[in-house]
Design a protein that fits this description.
Elements (H helix, E strand, L loop, with lengths): L5 E5 L6 H8 L11 E2 L2 E2 L5 H7 E4 L10 H6 L7 H10 L3 H5 L18 H15 L3 E5 L7 H15 L3 E5 L3 H6 L2 E6 L2 E6 L1 H4 L6 H13 L1
Parallel strand pairs: 1-6, 1-7, 4-5, 5-6
Antiparallel strand pairs: 2-3, 7-8
Helix pairs in contact: 6-7
Length: 219
């Protein structure tokens, strides 16, 4: 994956997308071959260093039973309240977070259950933004979100990934369309790779069928 590009990984359920994400973040190691980060084999990188260079945003956001502020500070414990407000402002989320019951001090509950699925990913994206990793791996939420949160998610994702090497396990057509490159998986194998528009030139392909399915769901 070229540096500072946005890649979307797509495929049917069970095609290997989640395994792909786990390999990139060393939540599992390959049985054969090696995964390279900027030319360096991941299995030679210290975990402490890897966690600062590679950040995973999972589907559920993975929040702790703490405040919004504390959850973001897990990435940068030295952040002041002013730093936090600036981060939310830069991502266009300051009005949203100030609209919560106690703003940045709102408790999110166990696993973030006080927030919606989309809101949990917003907090996780802010946390990833302040971590400033070399590689961002995003596993998009499969659950539907309300239209306002959908717009916030897309805008935040665009801002967080701009100029950053990003691999998104995509469940939304908009993510694949905006990516620099799309990787199509089928039964654990990469079967297609290229820009969205070029892949659409083969309507009978795996990607062509996925695209048709996405369009049908949006009607």
């Amino acid at each position: 994956v070229p540096a500072k590009t946005r890649v979307a990984v797509v495929g049917e359920t069970g095609s290997g997308k989640t395994t792909f994400a786990k390999l990139l973040t060393r939540l599992m190691d390959p049985v054969e071959g090696r995964v390279l980060l900027s030319g360096t084999p991941l299995d030679t990188v210290r975990f402490s260093s890897l966690r600062s260079r590679v950040v995973l945003v999972p589907q559920d956001g993975f929040l702790f039973d703490e405040t919004v502020a504390a959850n973001v500070r897990f990435a940068r414990p030295d952040m002041s309240d002013e730093d936090l407000e600036l981060a939310f402002t830069e991502l266009g989320l300051i009005d949203w977070v100030q609209g919560l019951s106690h703003g940045l001090q709102t408790r999110v509950g166990e696993r973030g259950e006080a927030l919606s699925v989309g809101e949990r990913q917003l907090v996780a994206l802010v946390r990833a933004y302040v971590a400033d990793p070399d590689l961002l791996v995003l596993d998009e939420a499969t659950s539907s979100v309300d239209p306002a949160t959908e717009v916030r998610l897309q805008r935040t994702l665009d801002a967080v990934t701009r100029g950053r090497t990003t691999v998104a396990i995509a469940h939304r057509l908009s993510t694949a369309q905006s990516a620099d490159e799309v990787i199509v998986m089928d039964r654990g194998v990469v079967v297609q790779r290229g820009p969205h528009e070029r892949l659409l030139e083969e309507p009978a392909s795996v990607y062509g069928k996925l695209y048709a399915s996405w369009l049908e769901q949006t009607r």
